[in-house]
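anyone seen this seq b4? input:
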Amino acid sequence: MTHLAKLTFKTVDRSAKRDPIIARRDKLVAGLKEQKLVHAAALKKEDHRVERHKWMTNDMGERVMVKTHRRVRPWFFEQDGGWYVQCRYGARVIAADGTNNAVLVKALEDVAAVLDAFLNAAAAGELDTAITKVAERQPRLKPGAAKAAANA
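predicted toks r here
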């Protein structure tokens, strides 16, 4: 008797795909947690930087991996006598309530409460429709294509 004859063989398709809604939600939650660190650094009047690895060519022509620091851009800014807090998914701003894209607070210290509210809403799945709407790619039309489509 051969060694393979003792085994039970079966054809199966592996489905290890992750639900895209949960993946988007996790990405937003991770971004909001990082923004809490950015806020803590802003209270100390510092920049929040994260370490990243980058391949560069040294003087001898060899490719080496170098550790660099990159500044994380805050999702909050000062304007009109207060602080505006935006929730972002990638480079796009989410309209969290469906129409408006920012929350106004009076002081920098109040930004943490808004970030916590966004974090709790994202973890609970309340922002899933807004994330899905922002994550969809809009087709890029050439400048003349819009006019041609209207005439057709």
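The radius of gyration is 23 Å. The chain has a mean pLDDT of 89. kinda curious what u guys think
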